[in-house]
């Protein structure tokens, strides 16, 4: 007959007691995951639909501008130079990503606000142009490359009526930057790929790497889905090759689409993080039950086995030794286990110290730091990397004016801090500071208000990162782009 320690039977009893609960918790975990995913999909689809409405609104806004321009008296009188001048003035108020073109029935551009009046302009006969002349109704084009600007463009075409007939077509062309203000982190989750797509499946605006993918067709899985249904959810792959779950919807008004692709890794992280509390709770209860069984079993075993020596001594007729658990095997094993655990904790503490040192070094290498400002005293607490970034120790906030913060940067920071102290919330600034060695550096600052138990803002905390190299690189890219545009303008 196999004999087992009392502790083993206690452990089995606890396992048998907890097993139904563990199974139930697992089923609850699965059900909660399904509900969370369904809710996430509903929320994301609502966001996509809202963005579709925004696309319609912006396209119809551009169309309304075109219709307004088409009513100018100068067009009725064939005073195209004055019409060109008036259109330019009007579009300057609408934004930098618009231009107006007037064409005749043959497609000859009469004027183009992106070029001086009288410049040589191309002939652009299109089916859409013929359709507007034939129907007398406005039309929205798909994405095409402008013959003048050589850039992806969308045209909102409206008829110009003279003496009751369509004499010309006035087109307002918009460029991808026209949609930049809608594809922001406020509407698109971090890491997600959001695109504005025309009726033919061509990307016109994108929140990530638009310079690489605007003007290209969406990937095949998404394109087939766009042809199949007005809206839906489809597994796909991004232009960069990332596996996505893509949510898309098509406008009933313009036929344009909005698609948001969420990386699978981001989706799983978003869904599992709320469920982690449930998982940790179940695991903790399971571990506590096993730990209690282990402790109780150990005490019972030590009490029983502690009688062995006295019983042997009594059988030999000797005086029973003094009863003590010190000499019992289970007690020695527990002491040995505690010693091993202590050594293991020491090793882990040492490893944790090494990791913390690596984190501090990583902050220095990334030129990243954290800070905390107490509003009542102006005292500033920072991570060790902040003085390294600034090349100096930080003084209280009020003393940073003109020392760490130039006047223009001080005004921005002070205005943001006052706003956060008044309204709460968070903010972000990119500004210049004075390095301890005398030169200026660029920093990217994120911050948020800290509230006390009564909801009052008592402090502001945040992060900074030295982005001087990035700012200089972006400035170099803008300069190169400007020179390229000047060169292309000369060629045109």
TrEMBL record:
<feature type="domain" description="PAC">
    <location>
        <begin position="427"/>
        <end position="479"/>
    </location>
</feature>
<dbReference type="InterPro" id="IPR001610">
    <property type="entry name" value="PAC"/>
</dbReference>
<dbReference type="InterPro" id="IPR000014">
    <property type="entry name" value="PAS"/>
</dbReference>
<keyword id="KW-0472">Membrane</keyword>
<dbReference type="InterPro" id="IPR000700">
    <property type="entry name" value="PAS-assoc_C"/>
</dbReference>
<keyword id="KW-1003">Cell membrane</keyword>
<keyword id="KW-0812">Transmembrane</keyword>
<dbReference type="GO" id="GO:0005886">
    <property type="term" value="C:plasma membrane"/>
</dbReference>
<protein>
    <submittedName>
        <fullName>Diguanylate cyclase</fullName>
    </submittedName>
</protein>
<feature type="transmembrane region" description="Helical">
    <location>
        <begin position="275"/>
        <end position="294"/>
    </location>
</feature>
<dbReference type="InterPro" id="IPR033479">
    <property type="entry name" value="dCache_1"/>
</dbReference>
<dbReference type="InterPro" id="IPR035965">
    <property type="entry name" value="PAS-like_dom_sf"/>
</dbReference>
<keyword id="KW-1133">Transmembrane helix</keyword>
<dbReference type="Pfam" id="PF02743">
    <property type="entry name" value="dCache_1"/>
</dbReference>
């Amino acid at each position: 007959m196999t004999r087992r320690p009392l502790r083993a039977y206690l452990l089995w009893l606890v396992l048998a007691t907890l097993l139904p609960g563990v199974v139930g918790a697992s089923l609850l975990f699965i059900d909660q995951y399904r509900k969370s995913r369904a809710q996430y999909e509903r929320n994301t689809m609502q966001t996509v639909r809202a963005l579709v409405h925004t696309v319609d609104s912006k396209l119809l806004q551009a169309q309304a501008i075109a219709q307004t321009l088409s009513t100018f008296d100068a067009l009725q009188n064939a005073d195209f130079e004055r019409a060109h001048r008036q259109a330019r003035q009007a579009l300057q108020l609408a934004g930098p990503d618009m231009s107006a073109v007037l064409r005749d029935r043959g497609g000859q551009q009469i004027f183009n606000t992106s070029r001086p009046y009288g410049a040589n302009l191309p002939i652009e006969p299109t089916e859409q142009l013929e359709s507007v002349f034939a129907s007398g109704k406005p039309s929205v084009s798909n994405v095409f490359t402008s013959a003048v600007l050589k850039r992806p463009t969308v045209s909102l075409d409206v008829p110009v009526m003279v003496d009751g007939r369509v004499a010309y077509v006035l087109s307002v062309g918009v460029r991808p930057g026209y949609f930049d203000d809608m594809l922001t982190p406020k509407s698109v989750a971090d890491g997600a790929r959001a695109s504005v797509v025309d009726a033919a499946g061509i990307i016109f605006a994108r929140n990530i790497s638009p310079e690489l993918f605007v003007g290209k067709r969406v990937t095949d899985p998404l394109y087939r889905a766009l042809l199949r249904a007005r809206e839906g959810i489809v597994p796909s792959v991004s232009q960069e090759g990332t596996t996505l779950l893509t949510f898309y919807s098509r406008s009933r008004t313009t036929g344009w689409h909005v698609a948001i692709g969420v990386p699978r890794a981001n989706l799983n992280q978003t869904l599992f993080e709320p469920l982690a509390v449930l998982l940790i709770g179940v695991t903790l209860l399971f571990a506590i039950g096993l730990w209690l069984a282990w402790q109780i079993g150990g005490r019972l075993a030590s009490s029983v086995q502690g009688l062995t020596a006295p019983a042997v001594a009594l059988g030999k007729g000797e005086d029973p030794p003094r009863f003590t658990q010190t000499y019992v095997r289970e007690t020695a094993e527990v002491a040995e286990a505690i010693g091993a655990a202590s050594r293991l904790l020491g090793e882990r503490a040492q490893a944790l110290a090494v990791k913390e040192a690596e984190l501090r070094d990583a902050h220095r290498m990334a030129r990243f730091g954290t800070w905390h400002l107490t509003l009542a005293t102006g005292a500033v607490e920072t991570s060790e990397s902040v003085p390294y970034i600034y090349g100096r120790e930080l003084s209280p906030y009020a003393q940073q004016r003109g020392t760490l913060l130039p006047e223009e940067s001080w005004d921005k920071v002070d205005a943001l801090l006052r706003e956060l102290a008044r309204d709460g919330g968070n903010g972000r600034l990119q500004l210049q500071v004075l390095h301890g060695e005398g030169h200026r550096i660029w920093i990217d600052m994120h911050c948020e208000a800290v509230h006390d138990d009564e909801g009052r803002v008592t402090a502001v905390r945040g992060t900074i990162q030295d982005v001087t190299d990035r700012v200089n690189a972006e400035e170099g890219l803008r300069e190169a782009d400007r020179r390229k545009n000047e060169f292309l303008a000369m060629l045109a």
